[in-house]
Amino acid sequence: MLFGMTIPVFIHVVLSLVGIGSGAIVAAGLLAARRLDGWTGLFLSTTILTSVTGFFLPAHKLLPSHIIGILSLIALGIACVARYAKKMQSGWRKTYVISAMISFYFNVFVLVAQLFMKVPALHELAPNGSEPPFAVAQSVVLIVFVALTVLAVKRFRAGASEAARVPLTPGSTLA
Questions:
Q1: How far apart are CA 92 and CA 73, in angstroms?
Q2: How much is the pTM?
């Protein structure tokens, strides 16, 4: 047990947090019309692993988290095809941005749900996960992600600057 978690749960949580952190950097890159190839690889791989490892965690029935995991894997598959197989040519660039942002959103959606389940102050506000504070928090997350995705699609278009094609690796800065 690590931090009160089994090893599989701990690995799943670490992958998820790395996916969210690298997803934030990738989203910032999209908004700045930068590819950030290394960060993108880290984001996509850890987010795929987060979704896959979620299916190996103890559960006695199909849970909403499993549905989110399935939807995330579909979006991630599309993002990988658009990014790597189709090389973001023409409409695949927009497809990549949208599917990557959807995958990032799903990770953050689950993070918010977990926070409401595990943080006592938040759990008191929404013990069943269906109360208004939970709905408001998730609505705000959704609105922010829709706005960020629309902006990212506009900024990370086919006519992006030469700087957008400079690959950066994890540890590099956006500048």
A1: 18
A2: 0.88
